[in-house]
User: Fold these one by one.
Assistant:
Number 1:
Amino acid sequence: MPMPIRLSTLFLRTLREDPADAEVDSHKLLVRAGYIRRSAPGIFSWLPLGLMVKNRIEQIVREEMAAAGSQEVHFPALLPKEPYEATGRWEEYGDNIFRLKDRKEADYLLAPTHEEVFSLLVKDLYTSYKDLPLSIYQIQIKYRDEARPRAGLLRGREFVMKDAYSFDIDDAGLERSYQAQRDAYERIFKRLGLDYVIVKADAGAMGGSKSEEFLCPAEIGEDTFVRSSSGFAANVEAVRFEPSPEVDASDVPAAEVHDSPKTPTIQTLVDFSNKEHPRDGGWSAADTLKNVVLALVSPEGKRSLVIVGVPGDREVDQKRAEAWFSPNDVEQASEEDFANHKGLVKGYIGPTKGSKQFLGEKAESKIPYFVDPRVAKGSAWITGANENEKHVWNLTFGRDFDADGVADIAEVRAGDPAPDGSGPLELARGIEIGHVFQLGRKYAEALDLKVLDENGKLVTVTMGSYGVGVTRLVAVVAEQSHDDKGLIWPESIAPAQLHIIAAGKEESVFETAEQLASEAEELGLTVILDDRKASPGVKFADAELLGMPWVIVCGRGLEQGEVEMWQRATGERFAVKLESALAELTARRK
Ligand code: ATP
Ligand code: MG
């Protein structure tokens, strides 16, 4: 016999005030409603109601993983460093991993993700193509020493992830395994009632071939994505523009170096050009080529400089730069970098590959020079001449200067054409809730995961990895579904479907509420019963804050044989006869 969750005994303390450290609504409300409690930055304890929501999400994930043919396993969170050294991630993760030593001074880590140890277990047990395909997953705590553990459960340093891994003998198999996980993700997020988009993701450091992210559109999201009206969707990190086609430069005048005193910024340069070197139609920032000096820091900590020429009306996008130059970190060049490279003349840096006549003798030609894909062969620019207070006009790409390659790291702007020609892009922000990834053979190769194929030949296994942020989902649902009074859970994961309030002092009110609760449970509903000795006002406010989808108030109306029913999501409230209340609820839930 199920029992209602009784607020008189539940380990719960609701708060009227927002926690001081909370920036986003889901964080404020989950703490105020007594679902979670902060233990340390990015580390939370789970109270009974929060645990119920988390468990329900995990249950949905388990059901859909089973439907996708994936089997549940469980790995340790505490692992030795060796497997992560073999794949290079002990270093690549940098400060993001929690590292520790055992009593024998051996290195360990709290795993940020588990590709390595899943692969090793499969290697340990399986030897033949007949064993494959295989899909296994766990729901487990991950540790990442995030730089900015903000927004509560959205970015924890300890958080729960469902991570699945697939093992196949060939690319077609990997594609099927990937699709099975992708479909399962769609079902999971639909069951949670979430609004989400699937975007192309950057395959980046993991070196895989194909990757997509599931993002929930939200202003507070840390990911920016673009989409066109005809179906293109990508994380900005993963948008790749084709190099612009060559343009005819036969009419472009010869390049000329001029003095350009006090023009270290794009705006001062444009103003100067329009005054001192006017042309029909004038000059704008888009006519200038800004040469940005970046420092790449390798996973081993090696620092090297690159210069990237971008149209002067665009900024470099830090995340796109990190994705492009991954696995390196990308930093602005420091004063020290400039001091170490005397040829870099701040404010007047030009391309470093090309005609010395225009680009000076001292140009730092050893620093790799890349251009934005908008810099077409034959296009002409105003740009730095690598000499103090000098610029060069009509410097033409392919004619007067060259590059070591393309670097597609400039910001993407609303209205930019989609790379696949599907029209102008719009930008939005989102929260990543899931990630599906065709890893290919990189990890299997690093860890020597091979099986015998049909011909008795050893072949490397191809892998996929698939993550869902379980605890992040608790917050994302709260973020998408709340109002100024509190949380609004969808029935699929609410701690209880029905919240019954005994609003009054009379014994009969409490008896009626008890009776109604047990009848509701007989119908299969989960119930919270507010049987506390507290004022109706306190109980009403808590019902709204806690966020069960349906509320029935047993109060004054009982004198006329009526109760009040609320639907939390719509805000609708209406009186209904006590004896038909549950029938009415059943009808409305359909
Ligand atoms: P992000 O870009 O948000 O840092 P990620 O790309 O590093 O995430 P993955 O390694 O792809 O994350 O992890 C799979 C899923 O785990 C993510 O889609 C996300 O839902 C969740 N997740 C990742 N980092 C965190 C975190 N710090 N707190 C809570 N959930 C997280
Ligand atoms: Mg990801």
Number 2:
Amino acid sequence: MTKLEIHQFEALSDNYGYLVHDPDTGATAAIDTPEVAAIEKALAEKGWKLTHIFNTHHHFDHAGGNAELKAKYNCEIIGPKGEKDLIPGIDRAVGQDDIVDLGNRQARIIEVPGHTRGHIAYSFAGDHVVFVGDTLFVLGCGRLFEGTPQQMWTSLNKLMELPDDTTVYCAHEYTQANARFALSVEPHNATLIARAKEIDEKRARGEWTVPTTIGLEKATNPFLRPASIDLRATVGMVDAADVDVFAETRHRKDNF
Ligand code: ZN
Ligand code: FE
């Protein structure tokens, strides 16, 4: 089988947009619709025709371009069943373990509530790729606008069950700020220290820090590391449950 093609591009001020293309059939999905002009420019550059929109959640920088793109391309819109009333133009609402076809490819839906109450991720297991929207970021995780710490912790654990070599495409370039916070709570993590330095160098050259991998995030992302002794010592919760350490870490990031 040919390789799934993924085209990443900048949109709005700090979003990333993605086109996912099955070369065998020509099927092409936009992962979220942050900005119509950026998506149309990307389609033109690749010479692809938009057939699907895969929404991760209802926020404007993720579903704001749905209506205009559907009117132009008559594409099928897939979105989270937990937010179906909030997704413009939705044709099919999906939940945990539903399978979504893109030409001959399949994505499995993973429900990852927390940032919003119905947030979903799209896992292309055959290609070791997952699109996580605003749930997991490079060295960060989404703010808890609609969900509880317990929900988000459960969601992050589902993503951690994916193979370490899974490539993770998230929706924002928040990495440099995330790295400063990560170092503040896990100051002795040598892998994190080295990674933060690399990130600063990349950003100084104007390069993207996205995508990442599940393995790299497990080693360096404080929101996946409540078991870390270093992190527990920093937040003063040596004997607490993982979910409580996660909640405190998220709380501290909100005020960082
Ligand atoms: Zn969002
Ligand atoms: Fe967003």
